[in-house]
Amino acid sequence: MPRKKHLTLTNAEHRIMEVIWAKGSATVADVVEALKDKDAYTTILTLMRILKVKGYLSSRKEGRAFVFVAKVDRDTAARKAVHQLLSKFFAGSPGELVLAFLREEELTPQELDAIKRKIMDSSGGRDEK
After folding, report:
1. Engineering a disulfide at 57: which of 9, 25, 51, 125 sits with its beta carbon 3.0 to 4.6 angstroms away?
2. 6-22 pLDDT tens trace
3. What is the CA 66 to chain-centroid distance, rounded?
4. Distance separating alpha carbons of residues 107 and 126, to the nearest angstrom
5. What gap in Å lies between CA 22 and CA 17, rounded to an integer?
6. DSSP 8-state secondary structure symbol assigned to residue 27
């Protein structure tokens, strides 16, 4: 049975995307340099090709090198990851995700108040049910 294709980013792919988002565009050599030789050139090249297939990158040839550019911005990638997390672990329930986070984190009363304000602002003043 073939492996299921994952459209969200792996940790290694995310590190590469962070470099490209920061630089705007990059060659494989640029990414290798930015990652401080944590991965070999061929590994980075393979991952960047995978990111292109997944739709996260596009490329153009400049001289002998290919320059890669992000097709997906950081916010869109983050939303995809959150949706995958919701469906995989929380049965699609944002409320369950927030409750799990709140159970694990020690928040100050000020932080909780700030979160409450953001929730109220994002809900457009809708009444609670």
Report:
1. 51
2. 678 999 999 999 999 99
3. 23
4. 25
5. 8
6. -
Alpha helices in 24-124 (DSSP H): 28-34, 41-54, 74-89, 94-104, 109-122
Residue type for position 50: I
Give the pLDDT confidence of 75-116 residue by residue, as tens digits. 999 998 898 889 989 998 888 888 888 888 888 889 989 988
Quote the tokens at residue 107. 């928040």
Specify the residue for token string 């409750």. Answer: 99
Q: Give dist(CA 97, CA 32) in Å, integer.
A: 35
Report the 10 Å Cβ neighbour count for 35. Answer: 16
The pTM assigned to this predicted structure is 0.75
